[in-house]
């Protein structure tokens, strides 16, 4: 009895775990060739102005159209790409593709600026010359630098003496916007951030999820967001709220004075053509 039980529980070969590990390894080693084969796509999620409900910009979100596994979301492969360095060529592809798209929208609607916000992993700053890449891509695509925003996480910029700080300063001087992504999930040192060339805070979706509803009669998060927005404004930063899923949340954010919002209430991340429709532009390919 005991033996059979033990045997069942402590098998050395756990097929499920082994399959998982193999998938991980296969995904990891498949990343670089997949970049070369062009298996990645960008989806775009609108950034909506809370004042007038207009589309101010979009965030580019990468997907891997895997030949065997189908469409993979970034959580499946971005950590692997950061681990093995494939994030550098992948990140370059994302940046170039996003900037090309942004330029197309800019040409189609010259009077309606559409900001392109692109996620950047810390390794892109450390292991590659991000500033040179951005400069080259902006020149090649002819996108005005002011229409590009880079999203970095708090951990990527906190304590960023040396290289990352230098990179941020150079990008800022070029006119590129810098946003702190998922703000509030890390070491939120706003005093320190305000000394960096940061232009926007993107409040993590967990804040909005904690807004008042039937289950949360004491909305600590709403008070915190209100204080953060006021402080950010006084420091000259604009604020974007992530993860807005309901009209009620959007209205509260608007009342608080938050600048822009992003979330399923407005739109999921969608293909470029849907954004083009949303902008009401007729764009030639
Ligand atoms: P993120 O930059 O914080 O992007 C927002 C994520 O929240 C996206 O997930 C988006 O689809 C999701 N989201 C948007 N609205 C809502 C909402 O109302 N409710 C909920 N629950 N979720 C919402 P996604 O596309 O799966 O991306 C996950 C993360 O992967 C991103 O988080 C970002 O950190 C990373 N990522 C995506 N694309 C890239 C990229 O090109 N480069 C790098 N380095 N990282 C990327
Ligand atoms: Mg982001
Ligand atoms: Mg985010
Ligand atoms: Mg987030």
UniProtKB/TrEMBL annotation:
Name of this chain's protein: Bifunctional diguanylate cyclase/phosphodiesterase
Organism, as annotated: Streptomyces polyrhachis
Question: Where does the record place the EAL domain?
Answer: 24-283
